[in-house]
Amino acid sequence: MKLVFLGPPGAGKGTISRMVSERLGIPQISTGDIFRTAVKEKTELGLKVQAILAAGGLVPDELTIAIVKDRLSWPDAQRSYILDGFPRTIAQAEALAGFSSLDAAVDFEVKDELILFRLTGRRVCKVCGAIYHVVTKPPKVEGICDLCSGELYIRNDDKEETVKARLNAYHEETEPLIGWYGNRSLLLTIDGSPDAETVYNAFISEIGRFLRK
Ligand code: AMP
C-alpha cells in the first residue's frame, strides 16, 4: 500500500506512521526526519535547510521533491510506503503523482489548540526517535527513553513561536491538499484527536476500502 499522511504538524502523522511501519512492515519515509538528520550531521543539505527548519518555514519544493523521488526509487519502497510529511504543497502533490501512484491520502484532523498543547509538551528520543509527551505519555523516568534509555530532547521547532509559524505554513500551503486529494477520490479523513491506539485502529478499519479499489 502506498500512502501519504497529511495533517497539521503534531496531528500524529509520525506516531501513527511508525506504528503502521512496525506492525505491518511498511517503510515510513519522513521528510522532516531526513531534514533533521541532515542538519544534525551538518551535511550540504543540512546547511541549506537549517535556518528554514528553525523558523518553521517550508523547504523549497524542488529540493524536497528531488529527495523524495530518489528515496522512492530504493528497492524497499517499490510495493509499499508511507510518506509522512510529504507532500506539503500542491506542487509537491503534482510532482508525486508524476512518479508514483497512491492508494490513499490520509488526513489526520486535529484542532490548532490541541496541536499547540501536543507540540510544546513533546519530547523525542535522541537515539531511537520514540515520541513522548510530558502530560499524556510521560516516560517512566523523566528525560529518558523507555525503549532504549536514550536521552529525550525538545525539538528545536517545537517552541511555541515556531509551532505557530508551522501552523501558518500548514494552513496556507498544505491544507489545500485535502481538496486536491478529495477531488481525486483518494482522501481518507481520520479524527486525529484521540489517543494513538484509537487513531491507529480507526485508520486500520478504514484503509481497506481504498486498497480494494
Ligand atoms: P515535520 O517533522 O514533518 O514536522 O517537518 C519538520 C520541518 O521540515 C518542517 O517544518 C519543514 O521545515 C520541513 N519539511 C518537512 N517536510 C517538508 C516538505 N514536504 N516540504 C517542505 N518542507 C518540509
Automatic annotation (TrEMBL):
Pathway this chain belongs to: Purine metabolism; AMP biosynthesis via salvage pathway; AMP from ADP: step 1/1
Cellular component aspect of the GO annotation: cytoplasm
Which residues does AMP bind?
T31, R36, G57, L58, V59, G85, F86, P87, R88, Q92, R155, R166
What are the entry keywords? ATP-binding, Cytoplasm, Kinase, Metal-binding, Nucleotide biosynthesis, Nucleotide-binding, Transferase, Zinc
Spans annotated as NMP? 30-59
**Which biological process terms from the Gene Ontology are attached to this UniProt entry?**
AMP salvage
Q: Identify the residues that the record assigns to the Adenylate kinase active site lid domain, covering every copy.
A: 122-157
Q: What is its EC number?
A: 2.7.4.3
Q: Which residues bind Zn(2+)?
A: C125, C128, C145, C148
State a single Gene Ontology molecular function. Answer: ATP binding
The catalytic activity, as recorded, is: AMP + ATP = 2 ADP
Q: Signal peptide: which range, if any?
A: none
Indicate which residues the UniProt annotation says bind ATP. Answer: G10, A11, G12, K13, G14, T15, R122, I131, Y132, P194
Question: Which is a Pfam family this sequence falls into?
Answer: ADK_lid
**Sorted alphabetically, which Gene3D superfamilies does this protein's record hold?**
P-loop containing nucleotide triphosphate hydrolases (3.40.50.300)
Task: Give the principal location in a single coarse category.
Answer: cytoplasm
Q: Where in the cell is it found?
A: Cytoplasm
For the region LID, what residue ranges are annotated? 121-158
Comment, domains: Consists of three domains, a large central CORE domain and two small peripheral domains, NMPbind and LID, which undergo movements during catalysis. The LID domain closes over the site of phosphoryl transfer upon ATP binding. Assembling and dissambling the active center during each catalytic cycle provides an effective means to prevent ATP hydrolysis. Some bacteria have evolved a zinc-coordinating structure that stabilizes the LID domain.
Question: What does the subunit comment say?
Answer: Monomer.
Tell me the function of this protein. Answer: Catalyzes the reversible transfer of the terminal phosphate group between ATP and AMP. Plays an important role in cellular energy homeostasis and in adenine nucleotide metabolism.
Which family would the database say this protein is a member of?
Belongs to the adenylate kinase family.
According to UniProt, the name of this protein is Adenylate kinase
Q: Which organism is it from?
A: uncultured spirochete
